[in-house]
Amino acid sequence: MKKWKRSSRLVHMTQELMQNPHRLLTLSSFAERYQAAKSSISEDLAIIQEVCQEEGLGELETVSGAAGGARFLPGVDPATARDQIDQLCGRLADPARILPGGYLYLSDLLGDSALVRDLGRIFASVFARSGADAVVTVETKGIPLAYAAAAHLGVPVAIVRKHNRITEGSVVTINTVSGSSKRLGSLSLSRRSLQEGARVLIIDDFMKAGGTIRGMIHLLHEFHADVVGVGVMTDSLVEERLVEDYISLTTVAEVDVKEKKIRVVPGNFNMEQQGGILHGKDSDR
Fold this sequence. Notes:
By secondary structure, the protein is of the alpha/beta class.
């Protein structure tokens, strides 16, 4: 087995850590792969940790002991997050998004892989220490965002369905009532898609009154799951909210169909107060 140069080793180690977020990679495995002493690997990890913190990439968490090693927790620096959210506000405010009935077209945003990846990283940064075992979303538009957040957290995704599918096998189903229209509906989740007692993060693209998310929370209680957080790309201003404890990146403050105007502002998410992995050159502002 070849002996790696330090420069090559640093590049490959960084790639391995970032491709396996929240997974502990041991010093022994690194030492064996690169044919290097554990002391040298520890020095390499210190270099990677310093760069990650300074550049706002996240945090390298080290674990001591015989089975020690390091795990990478993706993060984002506040300036970058603010810029990404401001850009999202601008794109959401495009009047061409207005659909009949005052609805907004969002599919192009959720189909933008670069944007979705960045938003998923913000959510993963906020909920980095939540201990989530899985990300849960409801079909269909929120699925790309949920997978992006899950990829940065290194956890699987479970999808709540509005209609039963024979391919889902045995399911748990509950009846729901929407917050605004009071329409009856149902939500189902395959028993095989989520372990009993899992710690769950709910991610969705849009929330109005919160009836669907409240329904998902009730459904997850049937799995004895612990909902450790709720994140949405955008919410809207409503008189009555059925879900209060959540994080939104943007808020649709007003939709004027007649004048074809949309006013969008940053959501309730404050980078400096969330307590996630928020490193970078201005993270101490």
